[in-house]
Amino acid sequence: MSECCQVKAPEIPAAVMSCPECGRRAKQVEILTVKSLVGHLPFGMEPAQYYFCEAPACDVVYFASNPQSPAFHRDNLLVRVGVKEKHDPISVCYCFGVTRQDIAEEVQQTGKSTIGERIKAEVKAGNCACEVKNPSGKCCLGDVIRAMQVAVRFVEVSTANSANTFR
Questions:
Q1: CA angle 53, 56, 59 (to 5 degrees)
Q2: Which of 19, 126, 130, 153 has minimal Cβ neighbours within 10 Å of its Cβ?
Q3: Which helix or strand (DSSP H or E) is residue 72 part of?
Q4: pLDDT surpasses 70 at 12
Q5: How many angstroms separate the CA atoms of 150 and 166, rounded?
Q6: From CA 60, how far away is CA 75, in angstroms rounded?
Q7: The pTM is what?
Q8: Is 140 in contact with 92 (CB distance < 8 Å)?
Q9: What is the dihedral of CA 85, 123, 25, 44, to 10 degrees?
Q10: Long-range contacts of 152-159 (CB under 8 A, 24+ apart)
């Protein structure tokens, strides 16, 4: 039987691959996310499965399963990649423009943050677009909740330290 008549099973891309630059495990991201956030895509870009590298020190943001496909770095994106940033403003919610600093300020002023609840309500109302706004292509609520927890702990520690200073 000739090779052209054989039925080939479609290639199923791995859910996780190692970043070719830093070696850290990276998760699949939809091509829609890549196309939405990369400033200039090359002509004739072959279809490929892309992965999102969230290693803070790595300059690569997206790389493909096919090594001949282009990789995209931080300076290729239209937005700052929060997990790779060291200086504010650091985005934690791209759909609604929430930064780590916004959360910290709310916690300092009120002792808590309602941003997570407000984002949940927006998501429930169908007003999010994580797949085209968030570089990871995923929902940001986990990042928002972690940022809220860090901000609350920071305020608690700061308050405890200043109380101890005056004793």
A1: 65
A2: 126
A3: strand 72-73
A4: no
A5: 25
A6: 9
A7: 0.84
A8: yes
A9: -90
A10: 152/107, 152/111, 152/112, 152/113, 154/104, 154/107, 155/107, 155/108, 155/111
